[in-house]
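Quarterly update from the structural biology core.
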Amino acid sequence: MEEIVNCYPVGIQTFSKIREGKYLYVDKTGYIVDFRRKKMSYVFLSRPRRFGKSLFASTLQAYFEGRKELFEGLAIADYEKDWVKYPVLHIDMSGAKHLNAERLEDYLGLQLSEYEELYGRDEREKYPNDRLDGIVKRAFKMTGRKVVVIIDEYDAPLLDVVHEEENLRSLRFIMQNFYSPLKKLDPYLEFTFITGITKFSQLSIFSELNNLDNISMFDQYSAICGISKTELTTQMKPDVETLGEALGMTYEECLAELTRFYDGYHFSEKSEDVFNPFSLVKALNARKIAPYWFGSGTPTYLIKTLQKYHVNVMDIEKKSCDVDDFDVSPEMMTSALPLLYQSGYLTIKKYNPILHRYTLEYPNKEVKIGMLKSLAPNYLSPISLDNNSLVGDFLEKLYDADVEGAMVRLKAYLASISNRLSNKNERDFQTVFYLIFNLMGALIKVEEDSAIGRADAVVYMPDAVFVFELKYDGSAEEAIRQIDEKGYLIPYSADGKRLVKVGVNYNSSQRTIGDWIVREM
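Predicted structure, tokenized:
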């Protein structure tokens, strides 16, 4: 079979560049048809970072600029007959991170000045809000067409200062002022589209804009950004097949691995399955399935939030909550949940229609491993090399069936980090084991729940399954007994692999593993 060579738009967020360069484009223009048919005027969309918000904003810009030639063969080409050219103001706030109040004012001024070159400026307009107001009115007058305003990443200047009350207040005041003309400009506006990571609050930035339609949690827009399972298995099926061939996998195996790594996002009650587009495109381009999204940086505001609310790494997932617990604005937060959800580190996994409650979990393996790696230094050795080499050494010894050697290595490691543990209590000990076994999950399969309850960790190797049970100031014998009594090994007995039970006891006075017992079935 002839290999399909697709150009993948790695890091490209400009619609025209993707279309003119003949890069792979997953057609999202049907959503624009939907906006126009419903005569929607003010739309707000929140999605995690690197999820395709900017590309969708750029697609809207090209559409409203009447650039018909870019849309040939796409869903909107069948709907749109007129291709009217509207004046479009596209204001990108992503470049306004880490700025103080004065520099933020300057940044807004620069964004506006390029439109003032087109539509003129009145010297009496000093402040960004007055200038925005003037530009829209002059553009309307000069072109005879209503104006389209697109604001991408509206909250970028605020996210990094979400914990600095003084700074947040001054920056929020500037942004609130800047956006304030949008309400009274209604007669001059054709369409307004605003994107961000966090949900706007009526008390906050858009206090004037009470007619803003927040589509972020509507089922019909769940796949407006990102790549849905349907899109991947239809439009992009040849790409998955090509990647599979490169990795020596069947199409089904490759799809399963991509799903485990990058799928799992749900943004509404009956959401489509959505893949992280940034990681998926990177994997197809590099022909390697690896954690790309996390490599692009964990935001400092997130780590600060987890520290502020004293979130234990074991408590992050499997949260059951009401929508009001996680779909709130940053200044209304009483826990880390809203930022974890809105930033894409947790997603909706289940919805209970009777109780109106959502279960939030990590979307996929990439996010879980990435999250744990970035939090691990707070619990384990601050030198991540230590953590990585421990996990590697431990697994290598298990691979060689040297369980004793693996446990000796773990015991020495625990003794070396015990002074850095905060309370030296059972919770700390469990957290350390939770991190170590989950970080192993980056390299091999580590079992989560089984139907009959769960052992503390189940590690799969090519020819053996290891079941670990941990006790705190108890005995290794007691741990082994629990494995037998609770039947933890039953689910693995049909695999034809060696089954190994490992009972481990942690001695709090020695601050490391006291004893362990290894028994093969």
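The first strand starts at residue 42 and ends at 46.
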